[in-house]
Every structure is written in structure tokens, then in C-alpha cells.
Predict the structure.
Amino acid sequence: TQPTDTSNPSGVLHQNMQLLFSEFDNQLRRQRAIAGMKEKINLGICISKPPQGYDIVRRNGQRMIVVNEVGKKIRKAFTWKAEGMKNEEIITKLKAMGIPMYKQQLTKIFKKTFYCGVLNHSMLEGRVIEGTHEKLISKELFLKVNNINTQSFGYGVPHKKEDGNIPLKVFIKCDDCYESFTGYIVKAKGLYYYKCRTNGCKCNRNADKMHKLFISLLEKYTVKSEVISPLQYQLEYLYQQQNKESIEQELTLKKSLTEVQKNIDNIEESYFIKKEMPRETYDKFLIKYQSEKNNILKEMESYQGKISNLENYITNSLTLSSKLSVVWSSSPVGIKEKLQKLIFPEGIYYNKQNEAFRIERVNSIFAAIAIATQQTPENKKGTNHFSDDLSLKADRTGLEPATSAVTGRHSNQLNYRSKKT
């Protein structure tokens, strides 16, 4: 902005010197700014604009990055993805909640480490550090979601809507090469087919025949009316036995929490109402009891999520199990896929030589149903050994989603008795 006469060599030299010193000053400013940015990011402070779902706020003069209402909805998207929901369905749900989303944007969100509290920046030169901002999800959930993404192609979202004529694609795998099946239509005949993705495998199958074969498989896991009552009792008993230790521990923690809360109420009464306790003593005991209370509450979190109404839950499950083939046949493709995954979590294998399915893993409840449907109600002496033949190797996580491979029958030393007795 300083006037300079550039009509002579002296003026040109003077202007060049001014520009040179200005550039030098800018370089010094840049060096100091970058040093400050590196120092902040090494402390876990985000120096750039946070991603979607976060707001920058100031509290007590401090700059903080917190989760906003959009972030809470994005958190649900991570949970849905971890539960096996497809990106297309997640996008539809988010749009219904007022969050516009497209497939590439959703995939980028799932891959951002920022949401699990980890900073990744070019200034860190390949390192990742723990951020000071509020976490949207846990690291465990982030890793689970991204493990699902690595198993899919591209953005994991089909460009076309799922075809209800071929709901078993990807779910069924070839028993020879272990590759998933895909589906296609022969337009000249108007017929759908499944085929193995491996070139040269030549494992093709008419879709209608494959569906009939799958329905026959579902019939093996359908509850028969004569075993509903004993199976109801058996599953309730099994759940109580497997979670007996957890239930007892939870009751103990609740009792301890009641005692600690009672102690807090007593010291508050002594200090605020009766004026019998000095402030120093009150603060000392309050810190102690609050610490105990927080530890108990933290430990109780691991026992949350238990089935509150076990009897109704099992009744509804058995009702569904009594008409599996009908539910599968009459449901839209999204429900079919969820039902398939619920019963056979790892999919099934098709053997083209035998024209039959091979199963490696079955949900523990349906494994019990399959065994129950093969038993006769009574032996020659009139004794019911239904529960002796059940092989329920369910995990201690409860009824769902614990699964078990059906590898054989093992007696669990339980006999069925009517609830009335």
C-alpha cells in the first residue's frame, strides 16, 4: 500500500525489497501457526472443522466439540450397521428422521475414526492419537462396523433395490469353492436362477427349486404343537440356569446400592437438617460414598439388557417358530434376509452333487427345536425324555443372538415337569 515510483530502477528495487520482507514475515507467521497447530493436535485437540454430527461450543471460555442432535441419529446408524442392516435401509431410516444421506457419504461416516474418539491428521505423520472431543461411539462398535464394510464391495449399497425373486443370494454359498451365490434372470424364459460366483464352477440352480429346498429346510426348525409347552418350560429353565450367577450378582449390587444411598441420605440429614456434622466430615464421607455409588452403578451397567419379560419373549419366539416357512414365503425381501440370518448366522452351503444344504452353525433356540421335533413324546414306559435329548450349548449372553453349532446330542440332566406341579 506504500506509494513507490517504479518508473526507475531505484523504485523497482525498493518495491522488491518491500515484497521480500513481506514474504519473509508471512513465512514466519506460517511457521509459528503450524507449530501451534501441531502442538494442539498432539494434545488430542481437533484443529479443523469437526465432521457431521458435532458442534463447536464454548464453556467457561474453553472451546469444546460436542455431539449434537444429528450426531445422536448418526450413532443409531452405526448401531444398525453393526446389527447387520444394509446401507440402503439405513439411508432410508435416516432420511425419515430428517437426515439426508447418500451412499458415499454414509460409507465415509462409517470410516471416520473421529466418531470413536481417535484423531487422524496429516500433521501426525501416520500416527493416531486419542482425542479430547466427545465420543459418538465406542471403539469396539467402530471396529465391528468397519469389519462388516471390508467384507462388502464398493460402498456396500446396491445401485438397484433388492430383488424379492432372489432373497437367498450371498446368503447361500457353494459347498465346493465356498464362494457366495449371486442371482440373475433369463429374460427369454422369465425365470430366475442362482449361480456360484466362481468362474468355471458351473453351479447353477433354478430359483424356484432352490426356494422349495430352503422351505423344506425351514420345516426342520418349525415347532410342532405337541412340543411347544415342554420347550417353553425348557428354554425358561435354561435361561435362568445360565444367568443364575449374573442374576444373583445383580441383586447383590442393588442391595449394596441401597445401603450406600442410605448412608448418603444419613449424612445429608446430619449436616443439612440436624446440623450435627461439620462441613469437613460431611465432605469426606460424601466423596467416599459417592465413589462407592459410582463404582456400583458402573458395574451394574454390565448386567443391563437382560430380558425383562422372559415368558412372553419365549412365547413370541415359539409362535414365530411355529410358522417359519409361511413367514419367510410371505415376507418382503428385507424380512426374509433377517430371518435367514437369525436362524443361520453364518449362511448355508449348497452341495450340487447331493442337491442339499449343509449347515455349519444354527441359532441355539432353533437347534433345540430341530432336536425336539425329532423326539417321540413318550417312551414305552410313558416317561417323557424330551429335555434329556436337548443339546443347548447357548452362550451366557442369553437367548439372542447366542448361537450354537449342532454337533451332537448331550444330556443336560433336566426333565420336563408341568408348571402346575
Remarks:
- Confidence is low (pLDDT under 50) at residues 150-159, 376-421.
